[in-house]
């Protein structure tokens, strides 16, 4: 999967979850997703992405599913981890992207998103 296909997948899942103020930018020359100019997910290498998350969530995710979530020494102590994109379902990736969006979004935007009415899909 190319970087373009990977960011397209991530963007599609953000759109499906209704995440507002998401834009595409770059991080270290690779595609990244931002909320109000704050990066919350980015393509790392082929088949991998970096996902921002609180440290306590990071440890739990790596323990729960080490075949999906991992880190290098560079990421130790940093609020983010590496995700193997070929090992994660769209459903789980969508949830993780929403969590990362909430973690990095400005408080007012995250609060407004949390109290939005849920409309039936049809």
Offer a concise description of the structure:
The protein has 122 residues and is α+β, with helices and mostly antiparallel strands. Helices cover 39% and strands 25% of the residues.
Helix content: 25-40%
Number of helices: 4
Q: How are helices and strands ordered from N to C?
A: HEEEEHEEHH
Q: What sort of overall outline do the alpha carbons produce when their principal axes are compared?
A: globular
Please give the CATH architecture. Alpha-Beta Complex
The CATH topology turns out to be: Aspartate Aminotransferase, domain 1
- The neighbouring-strand order within the major sheet is 1-2-3-4-6-5
Number of domains: 1
- CATH class categorisation: Alpha Beta
Poorly predicted parts: none
User: The biggest beta sheet, please?
Assistant: 6 strands, antiparallel
Class from secondary-structure proportions: alpha+beta
Mean pLDDT score: 91
Overall description:
This protein is an alpha+beta fold. It has a single domain (3-110), classed as Alpha-Beta Complex (Aspartate Aminotransferase, domain 1). Helices cover 39% and strands 25% of the residues. It is built from four helices and six strands, in the order αββββαββαα. It has a six-stranded antiparallel sheet. Strand 3 and strand 4 (48-52) form a beta hairpin. Helix 1 packs across helix 3. The radius of gyration is 14 Å and the shape is globular. The relative contact order is 0.19.
């Amino acid at each position: 999967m190319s970087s373009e296909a990977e960011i397209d997948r991530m963007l599609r899942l953000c759109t499906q979850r209704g995440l507002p103020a998401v834009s595409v930018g770059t991080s270290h020359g690779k595609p990244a997703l931002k909320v109000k100019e704050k990066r919350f997910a980015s393509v790392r290498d082929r088949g991998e992405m970096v996902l921002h998350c609180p440290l306590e969530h990071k440890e739990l995710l790596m323990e729960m599913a080490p075949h999906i979530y991992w880190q290098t020494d560079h990421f130790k102590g940093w609020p983010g981890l590496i995700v193997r994109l070929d090992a994660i379902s769209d459903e789980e990736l969508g949830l993780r992207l929403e969590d990362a969006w909430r973690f990095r979004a400005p408080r007012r935007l995250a609060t407004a998103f949390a109290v939005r009415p849920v409309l039936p899909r049809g």
